[in-house]
């Protein structure tokens, strides 16, 4: 569930909003449907980004999805970049709601702002990435990235030599927690003796802070390092030490080509196309979308050039099971850090259980801040 707090000045926000791309020249909102000539009108669509597409990660992939939607549906959307989570976000959503029909908010910390603005604009459709609050005109969307994390964890478990892996977590929210857990389960599936050491950066995109967090794990001797942030700072720090790295959100191989394994990767385009089309057709209904790897919303990035073929083959075989629906990442038995059974043999966690996960699996070293 992206994203919490990024502090920028009010002046920067105003500048960013002013410089954001206003795509449609028509200044009046239009309702989706047919016009007097029987032709379907095009809705005005807006995207709100926490960062910039140049982050190479989370925002980049959302922007790629926007471009796919524009190309397939012939719609040019408005984008507003660098919008911090907090009070200023509500003002941005309010301004967009005055002149758009569909608004996508792509960060977890936008949730309350979107809820408030959606209540005041019942004719506008709001879609929130990674949130959990819905209403008649507000839906949420996310994907089962934990499936990708498990697969990458398998590769990591095969690549480690000293069984000490590190993970730089972003914020201690369920989305990050269940991803770290899935990664660890993947590691343990091929290497039961391995441990995963977790530290928190409390950032989504702060290369300096993320490098510092990564360095703290590298100094402890981890020989594989994964990270959940939008920047490649952690895997770059790892590569400088000759340590294997695993990025996040998008293919980050170019940042550490010699020591790159892979990472979970998003593909938002199909969701954006389907959702906008459903709104145009009048078939859209609010939902909490949680797509799977089979749906194509999440995958793993191509393996790094130095990953052995037997590791690739092992991961691909398990991926095939996930796609066929014969393997569930969170199928029991699963125990927490204390050894207490959380998921019994033959049982699987429900979606609600996963989306509210607040505990680490056995084999993780580190704590979840309260």
Automatic annotation (TrEMBL):
<dbReference type="InterPro" id="IPR028082">
    <property type="entry name" value="Peripla_BP_I"/>
</dbReference>
<dbReference type="InterPro" id="IPR052910">
    <property type="entry name" value="ABC-Purine-Binding"/>
</dbReference>
<feature type="signal peptide">
    <location>
        <begin position="1"/>
        <end position="20"/>
    </location>
</feature>
<feature type="domain" description="ABC transporter substrate-binding protein PnrA-like">
    <location>
        <begin position="43"/>
        <end position="324"/>
    </location>
</feature>
<dbReference type="InterPro" id="IPR003760">
    <property type="entry name" value="PnrA-like"/>
</dbReference>
<keyword id="KW-0732">Signal</keyword>
<dbReference type="GO" id="GO:0005886">
    <property type="term" value="C:plasma membrane"/>
</dbReference>
<dbReference type="Pfam" id="PF02608">
    <property type="entry name" value="Bmp"/>
</dbReference>
<protein>
    <submittedName>
        <fullName>Basic membrane protein A</fullName>
    </submittedName>
</protein>
């Amino acid at each position: 569930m992206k994203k919490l707090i990024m502090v920028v000045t009010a002046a920067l926000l105003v500048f960013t909003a002013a410089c954001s791309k206003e795509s449609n020249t028509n200044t009046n909102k239009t309702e989706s449907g047919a016009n007097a000539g029987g032709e379907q009108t095009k809705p005005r669509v807006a995207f709100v980004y926490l960062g910039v597409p140049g982050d190479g990660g989370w925002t980049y992939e959302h922007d790629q999805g926007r471009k796919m939607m524009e190309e397939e549906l012939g719609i040019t959307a408005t984008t507003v970049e660098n919008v911090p989570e907090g009070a200023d976000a509500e003002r941005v959503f309010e301004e967009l709601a005055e002149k758009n029909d569909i608004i996508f908010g792509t960060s977890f910390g936008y949730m309350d702002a979107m809820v408030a603005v959606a209540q005041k604009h019942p004719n506008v459709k709001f879609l929130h990435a990674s949130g959990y609050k819905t209403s008649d005109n507000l839906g949420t969307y996310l994907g089962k990235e934990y499936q990708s994390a498990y697969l990458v964890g398998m590769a990591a478990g095969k690549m480690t030599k000293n069984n000490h892996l590190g993970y730089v977590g972003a914020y201690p929210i369920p989305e990050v927690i269940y991803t770290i857990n899935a990664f660890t389960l993947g590691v343990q599936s091929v290497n039961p003796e391995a441990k995963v050491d977790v530290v928190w950066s409390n950032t989504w995109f702060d290369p300096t802070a993320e490098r510092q967090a990564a360095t703290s794990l590298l100094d402890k001797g981890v020989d594989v390092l994964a990270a959940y942030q939008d920047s490649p700072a952690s895997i770059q720090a790892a590569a400088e030490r000759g340590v294997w790295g695993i990025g996040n959100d998008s293919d980050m191989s170019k940042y550490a080509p010699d020591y790159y394994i892979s990472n979970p990767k998003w593909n938002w385009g199909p969701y954006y196309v389907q959702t906008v089309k459903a709104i145009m057709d009048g078939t859209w209904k609010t939902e909490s979308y949680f797509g799977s790897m089979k749906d194509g919303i999440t995958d793993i990035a191509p393996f790094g050039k130095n990953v052995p073929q037997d590791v690739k083959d092992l991961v691909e075989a398990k991926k095939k099971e996930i796609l066929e629906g014969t393997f569930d990442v969170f199928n029991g038995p699963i125990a927490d850090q204390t050894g207490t059974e959380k998921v019994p043999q033959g049982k699987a966690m429900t979606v609600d259980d996963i989306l509210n996960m607040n505990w680490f699996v056995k084999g993780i070293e580190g704590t979840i801040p309260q």
